[in-house]
Amino acid sequence: MCDRNKDCQPGVCSCRGGKIERFIEPCLLLLLKKNQPAHGYELLDSLQVFGVSGDPGSLYRTLRRLENEGMVTSDWDTSGTGPAKRMYRLLPAGEKLLEHWINHFKAVKQTLDMYIKTYEQVKE
Amino acid sequence: MCDRNKDCQPGVCSCRGGKIERFIEPCLLLLLKKNQPAHGYELLDSLQVFGVSGDPGSLYRTLRRLENEGMVTSDWDTSGTGPAKRMYRLLPAGEKLLEHWINHFKAVKQTLDMYIKTYEQVKE
DNA sequence: TGTTATTATATGTTTAAAACATATAAGGGG
DNA sequence: CCCCTTATATGTTTTAAACATATAATAACA
Lengths: 124, 124
Hints:
The structure is a homodimer of 124-residue chains.
Chain A: H1 24-34, E1 38-39, H2 40-46, H3 56-68, E2 72-77, E3 85-90, H4 92-122
Helix pairs in contact in A: 1-4, 2-3
Chain A binds a DNA duplex (30 and 30 nucleotides) through helix 2 and helix 3.
C-alpha cells in the first residue's frame, strides 16, 4: 500500500503501511479454532487466505510467544513420515484472546467506515 | 488491544497489536483535504477523531516525510501571536495517495469482514 | 520585572514487529 | 549419493511507534 512504488498493489506491494499490526496472531488463533490440532507448516499455507505473508520466521516465533503466554499448547507428533511436527491447540486463554481480537476488529471497521464516509463527504 | 494487560480498552491500552500501520499518514491527508491550510499543532487535536495518539514526535516527523516525498507543501505563517506556524497544504501527489489509502481501507474492511464471518461460523 | 503557562515545532532514544536471510534435520525419489 | 520436500528454528536488519526532551515566542499574572 503506497504511491511511492509503482508496482504497488494490495497484497503485492512490499511497502509496509496500512497493515494491521500483529495480524498474524489472530489469524493463527482463528485457524486453530477452525481446525485443531495443527502444526506450523500447515498454518503457513492457511494464513494466505487472510493475506498474511508466508514468512516462517514470523510464524514460528509467534507460535512460540503464544505458547509462552499460555494461549496455546503444543506437543510433538513423531508419527508419520518426514520431520517431527509440533502440533498446536488453543487453550482457554487463547479463546478469550480470539474474542478480544474480534471485538477489536469490529471497532477498527467502524473507524474505517467513518474515515471513508468523511472522505466521500469531502471529495468534490 | 490485548488480553495481557488488564487495563486494556480500545484506545486506552498501550499495547501495540491491532493498529493500522502508518495510520497517521492517511488521517493527516484527509484532514488537510477537509481543511486547508492547516498547521501541525491543530492537526494534532483533529487526529483524536480517528483515535490516533497525540504524539507530536510522530506528527511532525510524518509531515516532514510527506513534504520530502512531495505529498504536501508548507510555508511559515508568522502573522498572529505566538510562535510561527508551518502551514501545510495538499499537493496533487498527496491527493492521489489519499485515494490510494481509501482503496486500501476498502480492501482491509473486506478482509476483516471475512475474518469475522469465519469466526461466527466456527464458534460453537 | 521575573516567573510560569500556552502554543508550536523539532529532535534524540528505545522498543518491538516485520522483513529478510540462513541453518538444521528427517525422509523420499531418482 | 545427491537433491527435493517437509518442518522447525534462529540470526540480522529495518522501521514505525512510543517515549522523552529541547527550543522558542508570546501571553498572563503576581
